[in-house]
Automatic annotation (TrEMBL):
It holds the Pfam family DUF5687. Signal peptide: none annotated. The keyword Kinase does not apply. The chain crosses the membrane at residues 23-47, 59-82, 103-129, 135-158, 170-191, 211-231, 281-297, 309-331, 352-371, 377-399, 419-437, 443-463. Keywords: Membrane, Transmembrane, Transmembrane helix. The keyword Membrane applies. This is ABC transporter permease. It comes from Mucilaginibacter phyllosphaerae. InterPro entries: DUF5687. The lineage of its organism: Bacteria, Pseudomonadati, Bacteroidota, Sphingobacteriia, Sphingobacteriales.
Length: 490
């Protein structure tokens, strides 16, 4: 049955309208991954030399045993962000005499076909062959390799389980990320324990007691069956939906309820972001960009002009990351939007409201940069107004020119789905416009006047927002059928 599923997947791929583009992307990605794995292999070959130089006073085997669990902690963090969920269109099989175990088993096994599972073998394999074999013998080396493979499988299924649960409740992903962050801080920031010592405690004893390899094998098998039974219990779409709370209004977010239909649309957008991987990645990346100022503000050589750039990105990164694919997020149900009773004016107002809320939160999160002076926060506020007035309008204008759909279930890493010429063109006005206004004043020595003009321009666009919404609405109606046709092409 697994062979049948695989053949069906191949036929689906080759019969797709975008086969040529998909093949080109896969070839490019394959080359990039191969190059990356070659670098990892080179690092693994010289790992003994690297560890010897980093820890000259320690025994090489002791050092190696101490870094393995540290690696797998970082591996789990990477998998949660970068590893894709294996997919199979199960609907065609649900009414056929196909065992559910076969469908679930195919999904579970295909998840092992990830370069993340090759990474530890390529990285640690050369060291085990060079050092562990000569120091402890081939039997111990084999046990080490089995333990490393088992831990890789455990991480594989743990990351997939977290991401599958997060598809039903976006807060689970944030909670898992927070727990991993606390675990990391407990070692490297608060020094409550040492992962290096825990790693040596297990792998050091593994040399003397090879039967301890049963522990990672049990963990890997246990995580596999947890995934297997979770998938089996949620195989049907109606079962997935039945586990959610029954029929609540989208305005269950009290703050949004006061905005009526617009608030209802924003609440739906928030759910879309939290329940799907790629839009959720845009939100998470926005949180990481809050630390962007530390790169520039701690460098005395960076002038005030850089603060304009940094302030715009920190308070508006969500507008840029999420907004450039504004209608593509709804590509799967865009035809339904066109024939729905929802006024497109309200649809656009919901986008403006969403951007206003997120950018306001982002500005508040940047206020600790007052450490670098009150003027820094002032520049952030100016660029906050600029983002709400100018950049929001620019992003929505270019959204009317993006005809490429996005699969919400796919991650953001190495994913160019939905990216087109409009994204390239969008970068020019977003980056250049504030400097076209600010730099002339700066060269004349009137930097305060330059900031004031930026702020006033942003406020004027905010006040005249209804006018720009009408313009965007008219532009949308001229292009709606082109957008819909583009979204239908899978």
């Amino acid at each position: 049955m697994i062979t049948t599923f695989f053949n069906h997947e191949l036929k689906s791929f080759w019969r797709s309208k975008n086969t040529g583009k998909s093949v080109a992307i896969k070839v490019v990605m394959g080359v990039l991954i191969l190059i990356l794995l070659l670098y990892v292999l080179a690092f693994g070959v010289f790992l003994d030399i690297i560890l010897k130089k980093m820890f000259p006073a320690e025994n090489l085997t002791v050092t190696f045993c101490g870094i393995i669990l540290v690696y797998f902690l970082s591996d789990l963090l990477m998998r949660m962000q970068l590893q894709e969920l294996p997919t199979l269109k199960v609907q065609p099989y649900l009414h056929l005499p196909v065992k559910r175990n076969s469908v679930v088993g195919y999904l579970a096994l295909t998840s092992l076909l990830s370069f993340f599972n090759l990474w530890p073998i390529i990285l640690f394999g050369p060291f085990i062959l060079k050092v562990i074999v000569s120091a402890a013998g081939g039997g111990v080396a084999a046990v080490f390799m089995i333990a490393i493979i088992a831990l890789a499988i455990f991480n594989n299924y743990l990351a997939l389980y977290i991401k599958r649960k997060a598809n039903l409740n976006g807060w689970i992903f944030l909670m898992a990320g927070g727990i991993l962050a606390l675990i990391t801080c407990g070692d490297y920031l608060w020094h409550l324990y040492s992962f290096k010592s825990l790693s040596y405690l297990f792998f050091g004893n593994l040399i003397l007691k090879p039967y301890l390899v049963a522990l990672p094998l049990i963990l890997a098998a246990g995580m596999f069956y947890i995934n297997f039974y979770y998938l089996k219990g949620n195989l049907y779409l109606e079962e997935l939906s039945s586990k959610k709370e029954a029929a609540k209004s989208s305005t269950e977010i009290p703050f949004l309820g006061r905005f009526g239909q617009v608030g209802d649309l924003v609440a739906n957008e928030v759910k879309l972001i939290l329940r799907n991987k790629r839009p959720r990645s845009a939100l998470i990346m926005g949180l990481f960009f809050m630390f962007y100022g530390l790169i520039f503000y701690t460098n005395p050589k960076m002038g005030e002009g850089f603060k304009v750039f940094v302030g715009m990105f920190m308070t508006g990164i969500f507008i840029i990351n999420y907004g450039q694919f504004m209608f593509s997020w709804q590509a799967s149900h865009f035809d339904g939007i066109l024939v729905s009773k929802v006024k497109f004016t309200d649809f656009l107002k919901a986008k403006y409201l969403l951007f206003t809320i997120v950018s306001t939160v982002a500005f508040i999160l940047t206020t600790p940069y007052v450490y670098f002076g009150w003027r820094t926060v002032l520049i952030h506020f100016v660029m906050y107004l600029w983002n709400l007035g100018i950049n929001t309008t620019i992003v929505l204008y270019f959204a009317n020119r993006n005809y490429k759909r996005i699969d919400l279930s796919k991650g953001a890493s190495f994913n160019w789905e939905g990216v087109g010429a409009s994204q390239l063109l969008l970068s020019f006005p977003l980056i250049l416009l504030p400097y076209l206004i600010y730099l002339p004043f700066k060269f004349l020595g009137y930097t305060d006047a330059g900031l004031a003009v930026l702020a006033v321009t942003g406020v004027v666009f905010i006040i005249t927002r209804d006018f720009w919404i009408k313009k965007l609405e008219g532009d949308f109606y001229n292009k709606r059928y082109q957008i819909a046709e583009g979204f239908r092409n899978k």
